[in-house]
Amino acid sequence: MCLKGAEKVQKTKKDIKVHINHDFCKRCEICVKICPFDVLATDPDGYPEVVAEDKCTACGLCETHCPDFAIWIEVDGKNKEHPAYPYLRMDDRMPNVWCPGCGIGMVFYSIIRAVKDLGIPKDKVAMVSGIGCTGRMPGYADFNTLHTTHGRALAFSIGLKLANPELTVITVLGDGDGLAIGGNHLIHAARRNVDITAVLVNNFNYGMTGGQVSPTTPQGGYTTTSPYGNYEPDFDSCELVKGAGANFVARGTTFHITLTDQLIKKGLQTKGFSFIEVISHCPTYYGRFNEMPDPFDMLNWQKKAVYRAGTTPREGRLPIGVIHTADHPDYMEILKQRTGMIK
């Protein structure tokens, strides 16, 4: 019904194009299965192909959930190339070596989007990692980067931040790297409240070395070293870091990637130690051993494994969102005060 005098608004249809880089694609099929409008299908060789571009709404689910930077959406001439490519070492490092469907690439793109949205120059960012699948991330990032020893990424990050306080230091960790051999450094980085943003990718096992049990493997979870199910209780990394004294603690997932974007941005904007755990998926090992070899099935499983922080807790599920905030003075502030007193 048209009301008299009402102004008729004509919506202009957007010019939407779906781009696919077959050189980067590993045929995991996440993009095909996650599209709500069947814009994509799988071709005879297993690659995604665009079959109904006119149905695309540019929701971006395919782009943000692609672990390999292989698909992106161009809208009205914007993003003719993938938005992440200027932040990647395209000449000699890409494509990445992560397994098909691995969630680490999604977390990597989430970090890139956060840096880009906040307008932080690339030469003012330092990304630091230890050893493991997540440890490969700095090798692909066109930032200042350090690939350090197993479990010691935060120790290097603290030294780097003290030497050059102007840098935005992002430390990326795996669950084994950050909570087992590196657990001591995590506790004390949080206790000191050093102005660093730590992103821990939790895929419930040691992926690089063969899928062994890790500190975050759920009780009953199967791995190569827990063939009858893990009998140890798993770590709640967010509660650990909260108790140690961090200013910002949060948890996201690779399924809830938009939320993860927001949490990483908040972490980067917080003065003091920020910690964001991202529940991710490892279809090659943890998924295969726990009857979820399809990466899309693992993404859907994440919906059932979490609940929103601030709502009624659900037994056996982890809260996602902002877990804890504080306003303690960061380590550099205290150091400056003490140095002034000594002088």
Concise summary:
The chain has 343 residues and is an alpha/beta fold. Helices cover 31% and strands 19% of the residues.
What do you see in this structure?
The chain has 343 residues and is an alpha/beta fold. 31% of the residues lie in helices and 19% in strands. Helix 6 packs across helix 7 (183-192). The protein is globular, with a radius of gyration of 21 Å. It starts with 15 loop residues before the first strand and ends with a helix. Residues 1-9 have low confidence and may be disordered.
- Total of domains: 2
Main sheet specs: 8 strands, mixed
CATH level-4 homologous superfamily of the largest domain? Thiamin diphosphate (ThDP)-binding fold, Pyr/PP domains
Order of helices and strands: EHEEHEHEHEHEHHEEEHEHEHHEEH
- The level of helicity is 25-40%
Across the major sheet, the strand order is 6-5-7-8-12-11-14-13
Per DSSP E runs of 2 or more residues, the count of β-strands stands at 14
Our measurement of the CA-to-CA distance between the termini, rounded to an integer number of angstroms, reads 77 Å
Radius of gyration: 21 Å
* CATH class membership of the largest domain: Alpha Beta
Q: Specify the number of helices.
A: 12
How confident is the prediction overall: mean pLDDT?
Answer: 90
